[in-house]
Amino acid sequence: MTALSRRTLLVCALATPALATLARATPACAQCRLGPAAIIPLRAIDGFPVIAATIRGTPVSFLLDTGAQAHLLLPEAVDALRLTVLPGSVPMVGTGGARDVPIVMLDDVRLGPVRLDRALTPVSALPLIPSVSPPVAGLIGAPLLDRFDLDLDVPAGQLGLYAAGACEGPAFAPPTTTVALTILADRQALLPVEIDGVEIMALLDTGSRATLLTEDAARRLGLRAPASANTARGVDGTVLPVGHVRVRSMRVGDDLRHDVPLSIAPVQLGRADLLLGLDFLRLRRVWISYVTARLVLALPNPVPSAR
Fold first, then answer.
1. DSSP state of 20
2. DSSP codes, 126-147
3. What is the pTM of this model?
4. Which residues contact 133 (CB under 8 A, 6 or more apart)?
5. 79 φ/ψ angles, rounded to the nearest 5 degrees
6. Are 112 and 59 in contact (CB under 8 A)?
7. pLDDT by residue (tens digit) across 70-113?
8. Residue 294 pLDDT level (bands cut at 50, 70, 90)
9. Residue 75 CB: number of other CB atoms within 10 A?
10. Other C-beta atoms within 10 Å of 147: how many?
11. Residue 303, class by beta-carbon neighbours within 10 Å (0-12 exposed, 13-18 middle, 19+ buried)?
12. Are strands 255-265 and 212-214 parallel, antiparallel or unpaired?
């Protein structure tokens, strides 16, 4: 769990299931009203989630990437904003391994009325970014979830920021399905996903345009992609061959989908077998809470029955 989630929280913060039970019986929590700290415009452009922000008053765009352990700035943004590159470097880990990249102090970043904490931030180019106005300055990564629960609503074009763990959440009505998250020390969030009835672990990654299965997991599931000339490029620039398959079913909690396209690539995801990307998440309103370790998906009403 993150450092924030290990704090001693108020009962209303619902840091554990036991506290959640107590909170429902507590009058003060029953009166808790969930309200956003900010509602940020969000656009899905070329499969990337783009949010509006400012840095030192200058309008910019960021990609929302829950799979990134830290924020990131592009070199051209550092130059345009005249930020000072600090002595030293940090390792940036990608599909091709780790490499050292320079760092800057990122401060006075605002998402609407919310000012983010200043943070040492790596500087690196990205292999692919959408062309938008204002231009993309970099990534907003998982540190955002230390302070806020996210109401990711791609269909409505907005991102809601809510005080982490406030009330019970989410900010939308049933029908929903809730899935427990495992939050690792490096801020990555894992969750169980069923592919053709077999449970595997997925990494929650809004920065991935496609839901992607590792080759090892594909072999275990008996999936083989036809030969393809398609490739993908990791954040470290490594080019990877990518195959494509369709699976009979994919289930996340009670969200069951049929005839689902998946990509397969020779990537290593640590404890995960799958990147759960924006192609899946963009079809539903999604609540992401690292502090309460929950993912909540809004379901269609009525909920489709299993076939």
1. H
2. -S-----SSPEEEEE-TTHHHH
3. 0.84
4. 61
5. -65, -45
6. no
7. 999 999 999 999 999 999 988 887 655 678 999 999 999 999 99
8. very high
9. 14
10. 17
11. middle
12. parallel
∠ CA(27), CA(32), CA(38), 5° rounding? Answer: 170
CB-count exposure of residue 118 (10 Å: 0-12, 13-18, 19+): exposed
The count of residues in the chain is 307
pLDDT in tens, 229-262: 677 766 666 778 899 999 999 999 999 999 999 9
Check residue 13 and report its DSSP letter: G
Q: Which helix (H) or strand (E) holds 268?
A: none
Helices (H), the chain: 17-24, 27-30, 75-81, 144-147, 215-220, 278-281
Q: How far apart are CA 218 and CA 190, in angstroms?
A: 18
Tokens of 229: 């000339």
Residues 126, 128, 133, CA angle at the centre, nearest 5°? Answer: 95
Q: How far is CA 101 from CA 62, 72, 87, 123, 152, in A?
A: 19, 11, 11, 6, 30
pLDDT value at residue 237 = 65
Q: Nearest-CA neighbor of 231 among 243, 222, 221? A: 243
